[in-house]
Design brief:
Structural class: alpha+beta
Radius of gyration: 22 Å
Number of strands: 26
Number of helices: 12
CATH architecture of the largest domain: 3-Layer(aba) Sandwich
CATH class of the largest domain: Alpha Beta
Strand content: 25-35%
Shape: globular
CATH superfamily of the largest domain: Zn peptidases
Length: 446
Amino acid sequence: MAEFSLHIERQKEPLKEALKVLVSIPSVIAEDQDSFPFGKAIDDALQKTLEIAQELGFRVFYDPQGYYGYAEIGAGAEMVGVLGHVDVVPEGSLDQWLHPPFDPVEADGRLYGRGTQDDKGPTLAALFAAKALLEAGVPFKRRIRFIFGTDEESLWRCVRRYLQVEETPHLGFTPDSRFPLIYAEKGALQVILEAENPTDLRISGGNAFNAVPDTVVYHGPLKNELALELERLGYRFEQVENGICVIGKAAHAQVTEEGVNAITRLAQALQGIGQSTPAIQFIVDELGADPFGRGLFGDCQDELTGRLKCNVGMLELGERAKICLDLRIPVSVEKEWIVSRLQQAARRCGFSYQEREWLAPLYIPQDHFLVQTLLQVYRNVTGDHETQPYTAGGATYARALPNCVAYGAVFPNRPKVEHQPNEYILLEDLYQAMRIYAHALYELTR
């Protein structure tokens, strides 16, 4: 550790400044731009990341179709992969941010901005960790390839294209979750339920499948009745121009219970004043407006990965009704059982069922070489021998590769603030993550 310390210390300021530059690029998906698969802003973030890597001394490659890029150092037949992503979720309601989400601000030892924690900060921490090893003159017995994805928050088309045309790493990690590491991840299912909307009720709410919506606005003739019902239920709301804004709390879909779903609260209140539709009926009566989906799936859980999580991420009520769901399924629960229950409930309410995305669960035994190596590095650097590896509901790139786990960068007892207003990363944690990644990359390339 002492041999690396000076070189890691030299990377702290360059890492922080590079992160500020990258966060300032609003890399939210925009699929209606013909020249770029996921929009110009995401492509700008990818190009900037590759530019940073090249300036650090890495060999870089940009996919001609713009789906991914990578930066590589070292030599050898075998390759260690580090998978990060440069896309971010939408910023949500701007009035809930202390600072503009794409204008990074350093305050109280934190760097605020969308992507600081998920996943631009951790990705750059790993990149600069490798730069520290380069400066220390470490010889790499395996290549290290940093793979930069562009569609992680949506459909993973970036990594799928990478795997179709590029070399698969032999082992690796993704810096996109918690320390010490994640060795099991729930199955992740995203579905769209769609039907005719036979009513005049019009609602549009939510920004992403995998984010608990923190606000939704009702514009309609029953504003006063709705306000009284929300007060009766004890739900927060605000009067806005020609409408009522129901206020929830944002969270990642893997921890739905830590958020407050504004859409499900609005649905409950609308049903309470007699404004039910098939979509409202499905949300309230079938799902039970519950973060664990117990109204439909019962107490669905297993000992290894805990409860099923169910998030109503988006709702569209126009001439047609569309409900967008994100489910995190315990590793021992069969996907087919979940799908069967959903399809039956959808038919009862007159909805069609469309599977948007399925990511199979991940499980790597705790005695696996990769798990043991990364865990020992974490313990050596931090002195934390108490915290054990986790299981999680998050869907990380670790599922995309063999012999891969999620490794940091949120430390134990630190809040996970990704997908939320005022996302930030503690700078001391960013630098500590860089130290851990430097030692991990050293060990994985021996």
